[in-house]
Design a protein that fits this description.
Layout: E1 10-11, H1 13-21, H2 23-30, H3 40-50, E2 52-53, H4 55-75, H5 81-103, E3 117-118, H6 119-122, H7 128-146, H8 149-160, E4 163-166, H9 174-177, E5 191-192, E6 198-203, E7 206-213, H10 226-239, E8 247-254, E9 260-264, H11 267-285, H12 310-315, H13 319-325
Helix pairs in contact: 1-2, 3-13, 4-5, 4-7, 10-11
């Protein structure tokens, strides 16, 4: 089978979560091109479904866009009410346009040049009321942030910190997102990318990392997520820092509650995430031809078992193509 991928095996927290959730969903999400020689209709359907997102996922995406627009303008001191309203109008306009495109989309074929679709529309659901609520949620997420003490802290960082990083999710810098894992032999060939929403260099050895979330909240207050550990590992590797001589705090901040979890990163956190990367790569290799992470060619689809959870299947974006594939397995 010809390798259809431009990179070696990739690791991400999302990717490994999907693999653990359902092996077949992992296959559809990350290796749909391998279906090309099996059946063209199944292949194109898998490509179409891979690009679908639910309305809830769009709320998270558009919240990130709107907050990034606001923070990058704030960094330039463009923060008056007129400017803020312009950011809101822009994102709401995008959401309305994209919703109408999705609603009238011809879902019988895959369009590689126009990939915006909602999974609810593909499956024939009427979600007009849900969409109106989604727009309100996005606006509310920005409003609660603007009115919070956290917004005041951000403005303070812009005037006092050595430097402040604000991610631009509209224009991904994929090269800048890559982790240089050359110093870890087992992971040298693995592709890992990461970029936090917000980062602050407070001084030569003091850093702050913030990642915003819009999903279900974790109520622990001092738990350090794997994603935060990855961001920290990237910082350490890129800046050649010693975690035992560096003060790095990292937090996940949930919207709209602004509840945060995280804390100071310790050496044990970094040791844990490095070992987690190694273990996960070994797990992923089981699904590759000859366990070769360079070629990154998946085994045949029957080597990716389906979850036995009917509840998971009932809401899975890939449920249509997953059923169709049974004919060829």
């Amino acid at each position: 089978m010809r390798n259809n991928y431009n990179h070696t095996l990739t690791w991400s927290t999302t990717r490994i979560t999907v693999l653990e959730y359902c092996n077949k969903k992992y296959y559809f999400n990350y290796y749909p091109h391998s279906l090309r020689n099996l059946n063209e209709e199944v292949w194109l359907t898998a490509l179409l479904l891979k690009n679908l997102k639910s309305i809830d996922m769009r709320v998270g995406e558009k919240t990130h866009h709107l907050l990034s627009d606001y923070l990058r303008a704030l960094k330039k001191w463009e923060q008056d009410e007129e400017a803020i309203q312009a950011h809101k109008d822009r994102v709401m306009g995008e959401m309305k346009k994209e919703f109408e495109i999705s609603k009238t989309r011809d879902y019988t074929s895959y369009d590689r040049d126009n990939k915006f679709w909602l999974s609810e529309h593909y499956y024939g659901e009427n979600v007009d009321d849900k969409f109106e609520e989604a727009m309100k949620k996005v606006l509310h997420n920005l409003d609660v942030f603007i009115e919070s003490e956290r917004n005041e802290k951000v403005q303070h960082y812009f005037t006092t910190a050595k430097s402040v990083y604000v991610e631009n999710p509209r224009e991904k810098d994929f090269e800048g997102m890559k982790l240089n894992l050359y110093s870890i032999p087992e992971l040298r060939a693995v592709n890992v990318m990461a970029a936090p929403d917000f980062g602050v260099v407070l001084s030569d050895n003091k850093y702050l990392i913030i990642d915003r979330k819009t999903g279900q909240e974790k109520m622990d207050t001092d738990w350090i997520s794997e994603q935060l550990k990855i961001y920290t590992l990237k910082l350490l590797l890129k800046s050649h820092l010693d975690i035992e001589k560096t003060d790095i705090e990292a937090y996940e901040v949930y919207l709209p509650s602004l509840h945060q979890i995280g804390g100071k990163i310790e050496k044990t956190d970094i040791d844990h995430i490095v070992q987690k990367l190694k273990d996960d790569v070994e797990y992923q290799k089981q699904f590759l031809v000859d366990s070769d992470i360079i070629k990154n060619e998946p085994l045949s689809p029957d080597n990716f078992p389906r979850t036995k959870s009917k509840k998971k299947c009932a809401t899975c974006t890939f449920r249509k193509v997953c059923e169709d594939l049974k004919t060829f397995e």
